[in-house]
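Protein in question filed below.

…
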Amino acid sequence: MRIYFSGAHSVGKSTLVKYTSQKYKLPMVTEVARMVLSEKELQLDSLRYDMNLVDEYQFQIFYRQLVEEAKYSSFVSDRSAIDSLAYSAQHTRILTQLLASVELKSYLPILRIPDSIVFFVRPSKATLRADGVRESINWDGAVAIDAQIKVFYEMFEVRYFEINTDSMQSRIRLIDAVLSLQK
C-alpha cells in the first residue's frame, strides 16, 4: 500500500503521516522539500530573488520525491510529486518541462492504482501554523497551492480523499475508515 498525504504547506500533513506510519507500521517518506533545503544549505529567503535557484530547487524536489518513493513497495509519504508540480506552477519556470517528463508519465499510473491512497489535506485557518521552516504563513499562498493541487488531481484523474476538518479526531477517523477498506 502506498499512502500519500498531499496539500499545501502547514496544514497538518506531517502529523498525519507520523500517525499513519506508526499505526499501520509503514515506512515513512518524509517531506522531500525539507531534505533538499537542508542538504543544499539553502534558506527560503534566497529562493525569493534567484529564479535559477528556485527552478533548480523545485526540479530537485520533484525528482527526489520519485527516488524516495522508489525505495519502498509500501509506505506513507509526506506529499506526492503532484505537490511539487503545484509549487512549480506557482513559483518556477519549469512546470512545462516537468509536465512533459517521462518520469511524470510513469508516475501517474502508480497514483491511480487501487493500492495507492491519496489523502488531500485542505487548508484551514485553525490548523495553519508556523512549521519552523517558513518565517511567516500566508493564507492566500496556501489556498493558491491547494487549488493548484486540486486541479492536477482532477486533470490527471487521480482518486483522492479530502480531509477538510480541523479536528484531529475526525481526521484520524477518516484515515482509519478509508484504510480499513483497503485490507
Remarks:
- The chain has a mean pLDDT of 91.
- The CA atoms of residues 125 and 139 lie 7 Å apart.
